Amino acid sequence: MNLIPNTPRITPELVAEHGLKPEEYDHFVKLIGREPTITELGIVSAMWNEHCSYKSSKVWLRTLPTTGKRVIQGPGENAGVVDIGDGLAVVFKMESHNHPSFIEPYQGAGTGVGGILRDVFTMGARPIAALNALRFGDCHNLKTRRLLAGVVAGIGGYGNSFGVPTVGGSVGFHKRYNGNILVNAMAVGLAKTDEIFYAAATGVGRAIVYLGSKTGRDGIHGATMASAEFGADAEEKRPTVQVGDPFAEKLLLEACLEIMQAGCVVAIQDMGAAGLTCSAVEMGAKGDLGVELNLDAVPCRETGMTAYEMMLSESQERMLMVIADGKEAEAEAIFKKWGLDFAIVGHTTDTLRFVVKHKGLVEADLPIKELGDEAPEYRRPYEEPAPRPEILPSDVRTTASVADALERLIASPDLCSKRWVWEQYDHLILGNTVQRPGGDAAVVRVNDGPKALAMTTDVTPRYCEAGPFEGGKQAVAEAWRNLTAVGATPIAVTDNLNFGNPEKPEIMGQFVACVKGIGAACEALDFPVVSGNVSLYNETNGKAILPTPTIGGVGLIEDLDQTMTLNFKAAGEPVLLIGKTKGWLGASAFLATVCEREEGAPPPVDLIAEKRNGDFVRNLIRDGVATAVHDVSDGGLLVALAEMAMASGIGVSLEDAPDGMDPYAWWFGEDQARYVVTVASGQGAEVIHKAEMAGVPIMKIGKTGGDRLIVPDDRSIVVESLKDRHETWLPIYMGASS
Amino acid sequence: MKPAVILFPGSNREQDAVRALRLVSGAKPQVVWHAEHELPKGTDLVVLPGGFSYGDYLRCGAIAARANIMEAVRAHAARGGLVLGICNGFQILCEAGLLPGVLVRNARLRFVCREVLLRVERADTPFTKAYRKGELIRIPVAHGEGNYTADEATIARIEGEGRVAFRYARPDSRIDETDGPNGAINGIAGIYSEKFNVLGMMPHPENYIEPEIGPTDGRGLFESLAGALKAA
């Protein structure tokens, strides 16, 4: 068969439309020694765009710590795999679906959830939990309400129907997301350590099988869209957003796990970004094999689809597999039982070529390694971010009293209750949700117990903007702290790095500094990165988002009896603050919300103190000494205390700020490595002694009891009324009655 | 006790139901594929689990109600056999004509997953003997279309025959439609068939079974069933 004649001609305009730079196109022409066909141009644009190739980020991602005694599979596969003992592994990853969600929030967010669930069950794991991290524009922006409603409904619509509990996440607002929201979805699954499945194909001449839903024209060029800035025409890109079918995904899950159990699968790769192209190339390239596809066999939803369209379609709920010799019929029977399409669409070869045939013509014939794992990579120029000055308490003025400030903070868009959001997610299905949304971390039992997994997503974008290195460290430290606060041993993270245009040195500088910060913290906290995703070009009309490296952390709890919650348990218990307080107001929620100033350096993260203080708190939980634990983060100490009170309905009487400490800095400073812990009455002195022996800063700051939050020299606040403010901001904003 | 849990494409709480039956009654439930024509021999309880059978396409439960196995379920019910439909199972029972009425979209048009209070309307059925009449129990809901409704005559008949199993209640036991999770008429959360051998309910008692996980008010329903079927 001959290569098809080159119509249309490949013009510079066509190359640009495919998101390839002229020098990248020249490199490609040199590589193949001739002008590419239009299908080949489509294929290379899909493989070499930022989203699939990580060409701007790879060189920095390699600096992250990715190994550890529990790590079975680090980055590079569909998801990370970490040993949790008893022959079981936790499989997890987080991925963004930012651009599609801005254009069409319901389908964009839903297919984001679908994509990440598929990444997890492709590895042979049954999904047991989903989380997310969402960022929207400021609440006065006209689009925010519609985007929030659509994204939340989309996440729920997909996850609820698929049947995975959505157990945690975060929602934040800032004007810098006005034109570019963030939807980061994380999935966590459970597999047997000796039944993990990988993408790398093995064996020449084996059948490559297409499974799942049919291929349509949806999502063509989705990955290319995700690799460019938005202009004013963002809304016109709606046809590139895929449409999700969670029902098909549920069937695909059950069918895939069933054929894996039956020993039919040699290699498996889901069709995510750039669909058939990316999955086929990755299977071949990772396995050092060639792949030949025959598109005549691809199940299509529409008639007359061209090779170009089939290769670039991002229709959802599809998988590609290499089937074990002689197992084709058994695999097909299982898929037919679940009502899914099953078609042999190609085979592996020993040529290291990626060959695509359609209607008797060769539409593409390309070197597979250079498309896949040997794609171009760049060391882009970057500027070190300029350090910001420290803000001293004496620089901060407000007319609000401490009580006023607390009321404003807990009813602010970022710190208010997100119940309106998570009640739209089924967080109880599968019957293993021990700690629901609203705590420091979600806790999900492993099978019938006693083990459990803790999970959380964290990042403080205003810190990353103010100081990307400390901000990167803080995102990791906060995830580690949240897992610790529920009694878990943090074991590994997935990262979802959302930034602006990497071709701008100042944006690349933010990226580099954040990655360095993440690396430093993961190293110090023995918290390796096992999977992740990079989302660049989050800009609209030249304005970048806040740098937002979301960290998804997973921790292990050996025995459910040793978990902890943040609500006060009884009256009369001493309230202890663990960790050192300098009163750091720079880049704080207090400064932003109450003083309307977004200034100053972010709080420094002392990783040695983080580890020491956290290990101490975890031991208090394991020894059964702590009765409630909460990490101190956004909004500082008083917000943490208020959250503990609101979760329980029990009040707290607080002591004065220490001598010489500015009260605002004491109550609202965001110094890191801190926890609030309560212990049974009468045990305070002993715990303080123990902490001092361990070199852990500790002090008694109050006592639980009553129905009010009492701050010295200020009006007391009834916990119920505080809770009412906390709970009602979002429903009122969304125009709901409850 | 020989329970059978029916698995439709898109069912997703079948394992939750299996676990609840196993833990509370010690039974080993059989999971039965929708395309089968017969129930396992000796089946004395059929459970239609929660989920999104057939993706909720067309109407919730409409396609599942026409599955092969439903003929056998209908025959089982006609013989007086016990049938429990939870959430999507309730929707399927209504679509299959085994229970009157229909479940439409929640009044607030959003999916809702939260704990609710249910008032147990009668404690003399095979499903509720372990509860007290009027008892308030904590059970979670998780649905987008749980708003029970029917024509006036049907509602009058159900009410007149005492066929309401559970109602969404306030902590003071009062029923307030606007306060419930979905706007169901008369706060109806679950209803019985004429002979009280078929129960459909939106809330999920199967998720409130184990103290390690949370409240255990759902146990009573499975204890009742185990008791009723042991006696028989």
UniProtKB/TrEMBL annotation, chain B:
Keyword Secreted tagged: no
One Pfam family linked to the record: GATase_5
Domain of life: Bacteria
InterPro entries the record matches: Class_I_gatase-like, PRibForGlyAmidine_synth_PurQ
Native species: Xanthobacter aminoxidans
Assigned keywords, A-Z: ATP-binding, Cytoplasm, Glutamine amidotransferase, Hydrolase, Ligase, Nucleotide-binding, Purine biosynthesis
Protein name: Phosphoribosylformylglycinamidine synthase subunit PurQ
Protein's pathway: Purine metabolism; IMP biosynthesis via de novo pathway; 5-amino-1-(5-phospho-D-ribosyl)imidazole from N(2)-formyl-N(1)-(5-phospho-D-ribosyl)glycinamide: step 1/2
Catalyses which reaction(s): L-glutamine + H2O = L-glutamate + NH4(+); N(2)-formyl-N(1)-(5-phospho-beta-D-ribosyl)glycinamide + L-glutamine + ATP + H2O = 2-formamido-N(1)-(5-O-phospho-beta-D-ribosyl)acetamidine + L-glutamate + ADP + phosphate + H(+)
